[in-house]
Amino acid sequence: MPTFNEAENVSLLLDRLDATFKTAHLTYQIIFIDDHSTDGTVALLQTLQSKYPLEVHLKKGKRGKAFSLMEGFRFVKYDAVCMIDADLQYPPEAIVSMYELMCNNQADIILSRRVDNATGWMRKLATATYNAIFTRLLFGFDYDTQSGLKLFDRKILGNIKVSPSPWSFDLEFIVRSMERHYSILSYDIPFAERHAGEAKVSIISTSFELAWAALKLRVDTSIKDVRRAYRRDTKLAEKVFGVFVASLLTLLTLHVRSADAATVDTGLLSVNVSDILQPQANSQQSADTINMQPATASAADASADPSLPQVSDQTGIQPASDAATAITTPASPEAARLAVKQQNYGKTTPTALPSANAYVALPKPDTKGVSKASVVLIGLGTVLLAIATAWYFARRIKTIKALS
Fold it and tell me: Alpha-carbon distance 134 to 259, whole Å?
């Protein structure tokens, strides 16, 4: 924990840290690296050493937060390392939750993400600009890089090399860790105003320093490895695969529905009377047919022959002659029986009436084109699904080999 003139904050910070770790039954060590404070911060911390397991060290190297962190890492004796600012803008209670996240997911680094930022608009603008340009654009990942609360495995310190400027430790630490295939997760936290004292950061000069350090780091970085590690850690491949499968299923569902709607055609089948009314009639009697046509005629057509009875439009039936009868689709079996009665009008030997269940109006489906389209779409979807599945598992196997 780097400090510089934080006498008004360290006592409350230590109380909250101690309560948090005791509640979680965790053994901890607090290391302060003081950058030559002038407000009595060191003297106050030394009096608190009897109450808390803390160490106080005076800065020996160059001034700057990044160099304080580098010096403090030398005194770490436990496996999990946490860095946090002493101004109480970051909630110390979040450390335990971050530690649980790291253990449950076997992650190497947990980065805090400031989601409820209570600072001024100028600092918000500087943070958003830096993350957009020098994090997402240059390096292709979306972490809250400059967030001052981080938790990581101590082994990382011995396996990466960081050469920071006074304020540029964070981005290089993340990038070098990603190059070494260490896994990273994010944890959302609220970000409060400074509890007491004055900020040590000059937004303008620090922004230029961070921008220059990011540009130099970009030149000396394998961006392909960094972006591959980011896709792995954020499970981007799994998300893309899931979206692809969901989209494919949606397209198939919509196509099936449209195909069902397309099977209904306005044309109707031509049905022989002998098949419906007289199954056992001879070939001469079967000359009388019912030609089922689209329902476009009305009762006005029947009035052309006054010798025939007038039928209501609701039945959808047209008049018939002795040779053949043209009718539209009957609304029900009763309508079919009425059609036969109309046909028998004036006949010496009436045609037998069909039973209530003998008449069925069949739509003429247009299944030829639908079947071909369905086969093509389903076949294409199957091929794409197989390619996506093979790509996904190949990436997983490659990642496992790289980690091992």
Answer: 51
Band (pLDDT 50/70/90 cuts) for residue 257 is low
Q: Encoding tokens for residue 13?
A: 């910070």
Element (H, E) at 15: helix 10-23
Q: Which of 15, 12, 25 is nearest to 99 (CA)?
A: 25
Q: Which DSSP category does 177 fall into?
A: H
Residues 139-179 have pLDDT tens digits of 888 899 989 999 999 999 999 999 888 888 999 999 999 88
Strands 80-83, 30-34: pairing is unpaired
- The residues near 333 (Cβ < 8 Å, ≥ 6 apart) are 354, 355, 356, 357, 358, 359
CA nearest to 16, candidates 97, 96, 91: 91
Distance CA(72)–CA(308), nearest Å, equals: 109
Say which residue the tokens 């808390």 belong to. 52
Contact partners, residue 361, CB within 8 Å, separation at least 6:
268, 292, 329, 330
111 alpha-carbon distance from chain centroid:
21
What predicted TM-score, i.e. pTM, was given to this entire model?
0.58
User: Structure tokens of 368?
Assistant: 């030829």
Residue 10 binned pLDDT confidence (cut-offs 50, 70, 90): very high
DSSP symbols for 115-165: EEE-S-HHHHHHHHHHIIIIIIIHH-----TT-S-EEEEGGGGGT------
Structure tokens at 70: 């580098």
All structural domains of the chain with their residue ranges: 2-234, 235-264+369-404, 271-344
For residues 27 and 319, what is the distance between their CA atoms, to the nearest angstrom? 98
Give the Cα separation of 293 and 66 in Å (integer): 87
Q: How many helices (H) and strands (E) does the chain have?
A: 13, 10
Residue 293: which residues within 8 A CB-CB, separation 6 or more?
268, 326, 327, 328
CATH code linked to domain 2-234: 3.90.550.10
| Sign of the torsion formed by the C-alpha atoms of 144, 146, 150 and 153 | positive
- Residue 152 has phi, psi (to 5 degrees) of -155, 165
